[in-house]
Amino acid sequence: MDFENSWNVVSKDFAIFRNKKSILYTLTILPFAVGIGFTVILSLIHNASPSPYSTYIPAFNGFLFWFIILAAIIPTAVASYSVMGEKVEKTLEPLLATPLSDGEIILGKILSSFIPCIVATYLGAVIFMIGIDIITSQQLGYILYPNWTAAVFLLLATPLACLFGTEFNTLISVRVSDVRTAQSYGGAVYFPLLIVFILGEAGYITLDIKTILIFSVILVVVDIIIFYINKSLFQREEIITRFS
Amino acid sequence: MIDAENLTRKFGELTAVDDLTFHVEEGEVFGFLGPNGAGKTTTIRMLTGLISKTSGKAQIGGYDIGNSEDMQKIRRMIGVLPENVGLYENLSAYQNLDYYGRFYKISAEHRHERIEYFLNLLGLWDQRNLRAGKFSKGMKQKLAIARALIHDPQILFLDEPTANLDPEASKTVRDFILELKSENRTIFLNTHLLDEATRICDRVGIMKTKLLAIDTPKNLSKTVSSTKTVIQIEKINYKIIEAVKKAKPGKVEVNGNKIIVEVVDAVEENPDILEAAFTAGGRIQLVTEVNPTLEEAYLKYVRSSD
Ligand SMILES: Nc1ncnc2c1ncn2[C@@H]1O[C@H](COP(=O)(O)OP(=O)(O)O)[C@@H](O)[C@H]1O
Ligand SMILES: [Mg+2]
For chain A, which residues make up each domain, given as ranges? Predict the structure, then answer.
């Protein structure tokens, strides 16, 4: 495994994304919209029923959970394009004739979607945390974020969810033949995460550090399983005979 | 340089390539000629390690295509132009080449030199920053050939390099292939264009699932017919025809005012033939030499295999 080769795939994909408006918009507008949007919603709720911010702290976790969901769904826009782009333009055949290995390609493809998606998610989360600190710090008397809960949500569960979204979308993209189909199936990553959120809102589970730790362990297992499925599907013979 | 022995590939029930045995010398331009579906692309894909073989053996530069460690060495020795050019349409010509150059660990400086050299050679340097998607078919094909050459490979595999190109672009590509040959590179070329094969290949293999014949284009042509001398006479008559037939018994045909004579050595035999026609009162308008074409040989082999 030569990481330089994978990184070459990543930087090539970044150069392509830079020219792709739909991807650029997703990666830039979405984090701002979510980060600022959540802050505004919270302050509106607070204005409507002005109970002290300290009673909101559990609800903040629900909002933080949305960044985990966000990290899993942004790759739908990016990963599908990155794999499908290679399929549509039939670029895999000449690529596979170079010394690049199958594993190096798949690692490159996963990273080229994972990196921008996680960066975008973090951008949104940072905006959200700063926003919350601005509106709450005076009343609370301390600065809420960053804290351990946010660290577990964002530094542990979020990248795992992002990897899940990326791998799942890569998997779908390898199987189907156009970006639209890939994205409509790929959007399915949303549901398992949404169910966790709803269970939390309905009171069946509490979205606290402990739950998120368990949730993260599950994600680790799922991520490993999907990685191996990806690897077994991404065989040069398969790719060449199916797509070119 | 390239050795195949009983190379075979099956797709389920279908045998796409059956029992190929051939050898390509270093510095040779070898053409694989065959109709669509003959198994040409499948052969290149096996030789370049893109798909596996079902049975048989093949070696490139002494390395075994079935062995993954050898295959890694082979990949550094070969350049491939696939049937579909497979360029990144959203990247510039320069970026497309640079991306490939990096996989061969060519230094940045050297990469730049080589990209500049090839893009200049192929007349694309001025368009180097243009997206490949904006290129014409001919330009894309040239760019893809440059991509196959970026790491200076000794052996080139070109799958129908002039397919879908206009005559001018085809000529540029063909001339370029000849130039590569002059640099002593070994070139394995798939084509279904007989004229192209005749012009640029040292030897051709005619294939349709199986290898039907393999030789120089000239020798293959001769296996079905021979050189002919065509004499056009102002006013043809029975006496002239008889005189020519007497000079070359059994090898004369008449078509309108043309007498067509099969010859082995035209320079040796023509004077006698023409003298016979002239002495019999024939006023000769034109004398043309017609060489046998690869087309006749090709059609014979391909049809006989049905
Ligand atoms: N991936 C594949 N799966 C099944 N059959 C294939 C595949 N690739 C090629 N074939 C079949 O193998 C035969 C040879 O194809 P190909 O090598 O592409 O021929 P050519 O390049 O000479 O036109 C054809 O009958 C084709 O349909
Ligand atoms: Mg073909």
Answer: 3-243
